[in-house]
């Protein structure tokens, strides 16, 4: 059975990997994800030029009844140089994603210039959708700003680059972001990031469950699946076929992976459920995915990729 994926010149023997932010802040975590026989890759925690402690805790909370999670981490990371050192020295046959999330356009341009001039030979993910830095907007909700930064990036950047997008909820917004992205030689888009600025309440104390931003945080896990499916499908229908899609959001079972591939995903990322189960989740999900294909006598993901049917 062929459960592989392809982005640019990179072949992935497995399509599952972590979502940026989960199990990827330290070299030990990155090594664990890469070492899993059932992960196809790893993505680093989104990096800023300097080390960041992030927001005050509690800043992550698992919602009840396996609904998902809410986080307002605040972009904690070990700093750009830490992750560059990791990716330059790590011996692995698996492609590696380097995520950057500068707080300013200049920070992003500086990090991308350093990556361009380095020996890094993996893929770069420009995170345009962090919802948790107080006072900072999710860039990709501003279509002009998104066009402006991609114009400056592609004036010099020649390595495989993709963007991490926030979820969109309006058909016109799908059209508008696709019109921007189709003007650039992107290797991929990764959709969705968490659904920004949700709120959860502890029923015993009548108090919010995380400290930053009065309790507002990004939502992940099963409760975001329908939005993730819609964004993967909408962008697959609108983007040039040269722009591949990483489907992220709401994956707790092999059927969820299957559904994202049906909508057009080339790779699939796991966030909240990876927090819950740790790296064994990759083996469980791939086994369940294989079973879903078996049920319908499919031999490869290629047979179902993008093949979601509508009602005539
Ligand atoms: O709070 C975070 O660090 C964070 N949390 C998210 O849910 N998405 C992001 O892109 C980021 I940079």
Automatic annotation (TrEMBL):
Compartment(s) where it occurs, according to its Swiss-Prot or TrEMBL record: Cytoplasm
Superkingdom to which the source organism belongs: Bacteria
GO terms classed as biological process: 'de novo' pyrimidine nucleobase biosynthetic process; 'de novo' UMP biosynthetic process
Class of this enzyme: oxidoreductase
EC number of this enzyme: 1.3.98.1
InterPro entries assigned: Aldolase_TIM, DHO_dehydrogenase, DHOD_1A, Dihydro_DH_chainA_dom2, Dihydroorotate_DH_1_2, Dihydroorotate_DH_cat, Dihydroorotate_DH_CS
Catalytic activity, as annotated: (S)-dihydroorotate + fumarate = orotate + succinate
Necessary cofactors: FMN
A GO term from the CC aspect: cytoplasm
Functional pathway: Pyrimidine metabolism; UMP biosynthesis via de novo pathway
Positions of the Dihydroorotate dehydrogenase catalytic domain: 3-293
Record key words, sorted: Cytoplasm, Flavoprotein, FMN, Oxidoreductase, Pyrimidine biosynthesis
An MF annotation (GO) of this entry: dihydroorotate dehydrogenase (fumarate) activity
Alphabetized Pfam families for the sequence: DHO_dh
Subunit structure: Homodimer.
Stated family: Belongs to the dihydroorotate dehydrogenase family. Type 1 subfamily.
Name the record gives this protein: dihydroorotate oxidase (fumarate)
Lineage: Bacteria, Bacillati, Bacillota, Bacilli, Lactobacillales
